[in-house]
Amino acid sequence: METLLKAHKVTKYFHEPEKFQVLKEIDLTVNRGEFVSLVGKSGCGKSTLMYVLSTMDTDYEGELEIAGQRLTGKHQNELARFRNLHIGFVFQFHFLLPEFTVLQNVMIPALKSGRWSKEETEHRAMEKLSILGISEQAKKLSSKLSGGQQQRVAIARALINDPDVIMGDEPTGNLDSHNTNLVFDLLSELVHNQNQTIIAVTHDEEFARKTDRIVEMSDGRITGGKSNVG
Known about the structure:
The protein is α/β, with parallel strands linked by helices. The protein has a domain at 3-95 and 163-227: P-loop containing nucleotide triphosphate hydrolases (Rossmann fold, 3-Layer(aba) Sandwich), CATH 3.40.50.300. The protein has helices at residues 46-53, 76-86, 102-113, 118-131, 147-159, 177-194, 205-210, and strands spanning 3-14, 20-31, 35-39, 61-66, 69-70, 87-91, 165-169, 197-201, 213-218, 221-227. The strands form 2 sheets. Strands 6-7-8-3-9-10 form a 6-stranded mixed sheet. Strand 1 (3-14) and strand 2 form a beta hairpin. Helix 3 runs parallel beside helix 5.
């Protein structure tokens, strides 16, 4: 198995209103093509860990490596470029631009990267929308879609640059049970059919049980884990 992400002794403090240790020497390894869920009670540190792993929070001690690159200590501009090319994000709220069409929303990260022409980017965006079964909505304003459809568009946007890893913070937290199952199945297909790597923070026990591996957190530490494969 190829190691894609490695965190070593990641420690983090909050300083307001007083100094408080929120992450305590976290060691975590995630392999390419693995679907991992981070679980634990509210306040256990799982969302904080996700922001460190995603390189959006750089105020920590320890080491972080993704796709063979050591990211600890890099400047914000380097990290922003790395994120755009290597990490896709899916949040609880889709954060689509309501005045843009579905297609335009999906194209944004690729246009920002400058890797492809506008025509090629549009073609790639349509491919991602097709994978997610929503290409017929491409010309609609994103604000005209249902919640489940909007989250599928957000996943297509996360995929546009062929990232090494997709990070999800409660990716089904705002959806009903039907759309939760639909979105989970789409994420699972990406892992098992396209070797996509996904790390997701979730409160949904059923969602977590269906992922490849559960990583349990409590009081800023990883306290357990369970493989659901095999």
